[in-house]
Fold:
Amino acid sequence: GQSLEQPSEVTAVEGAIVQINCTYQTSGFYGLSWYQQHDGGAPTFLSYNALDGLEETGRFSSFLSRSDSYGYLLLQELQMKDSASYFCAVRASWDSSYKLIFGSGTRLLVRP
Amino acid sequence: DTGVSQDPRHKITKRGQNVTFRCDPISEHNRLYWYRQTLGQGPEFLTYFQNEAQLEKSRLLSDRFSAERPKGSFSTLEIQRTEQGDSAMYLCASSLVGVRSTEAFFGQGTRLTVV
Structure:
């Protein structure tokens, strides 16, 4: 099976940098995705890593280490609108459905 | 709006009643997924379609649940004889299998409350 662990809550100050970690266990790893979800909203795709290293998209970066079964999402120049829940999710390499297995989410609170 | 749309956004029903939700995926997407999300948790996979074929169902999907995707377009999820434990957000997602099949687009969800 698959399981993911991420911190339940993180608090940071506007303008700062915050890192949200995710460790996973999976029988066959295909890739790690990150989604953002505001209260009452839809999960929206942020980034995806299949290979080791850093992927950068504007203020958001995501890192993966396959050997450590570990990844993180880095948010820079935090803004109040970044207050949301952030989910890491994996796909299994053997699974042709491409369904996502999600962690429980990290609630990010950005303070002024 | 060309995103994934779901209807209704909210549904309150009495225990034992049947409910049906609708999902309209992004038109060119051939895969459609249903997930369930409870408070403080991540979405959990329920079932998925490739075009009109339902290819996998989670063990979470009891026989009170049924999903269809006629003609490979919109999809419906029906829950019969609802129970309080069915209260959750039901999310629909669609994707296009291919190079960018890593990205799934989610709808706003239908929040079901069973009283």
Summary: Residues 33 and 112 of chain A are 28 Å apart (CA to CA). The mean pLDDT of chain A is 93.
